[in-house]
Amino acid sequence: MSKAQLIAGSRPSAGACLVGAAAPAAWHDDPMVLADQPVGLAIMAKAPRAGAVKTRLCPPLRPPEAAELARCFLLDAVERVGRVAGVRPVLAYAPVEARGELEGLVPGFALLAQQGEDLGARQARVIAEVLALGHEGALVIGTDAPTLPRECLDEAVSLVMAPDVDVVLGPTDDGGYYLIGLRAPCPALFEDMPWSTTAVLSRTLDRAQHLGLRVACLPSWFDVDTKADLERLAAELAVNPGLLPRHTREFIARRISPGPSGVDRADHEHHPAHGRGAAASRGD
Q1: If you classify domain 37-259 with CATH, what class do you get?
Q2: Whole-structure pTM over 0.70, yes or no?
């Protein structure tokens, strides 16, 4: 695994980020959960409901199949996080009423309900809340990079605690990021961002520089959001045999077959995805 790239910056200006300040009052679902590790590592995920997740993969998938794939991504992320040393695992879930259908998938995880008007507000709130639980550092990841090596998360844990690093970013090939980490709440880093565009990473780096934050970038990886991404995923799993990511690998083997114009649905018996609900205002 390649080493992280350090992007130098000056010390944060007073008030830019809440260094040394108290985080917002906790809204954790279970106030008895204690911080027993220096870093909190949160997975942000929606309940895998048909029509609400991975909508850009329809076609080639049907909505229930896209929801099943999203569930596989989540389960693989849970297993990956569970193998990272020195972290308290957290699931930041949406929508608020989805706790019951998700808590059985994440044994040993703290549970946070996502709150905020957009992705930036939700990420900022999750980071502040993880820190409010007593952790020295907070890392947030999504579920859309199922082949991300655990070593990237190990490196992120080390970097977020490094005294010469203020922000940790895991870039994605599409111009976003798969991970962000901080040791202090910093709402300004997330405000007015063009989410779901190719400009997210560059704008975040510019914002960090403006705020005087020192950034460390992890190795770049790829998200699975589109049919082309699904084709890349299927191709990489085909040439890299192994167990992991096991849920995603099993789904691809059962549901996806090579076609004349890329991946197609395999003609197997359909199994409904876990969980159903109304479509979200913005699909993944």
Answers
A1: alpha beta
A2: yes
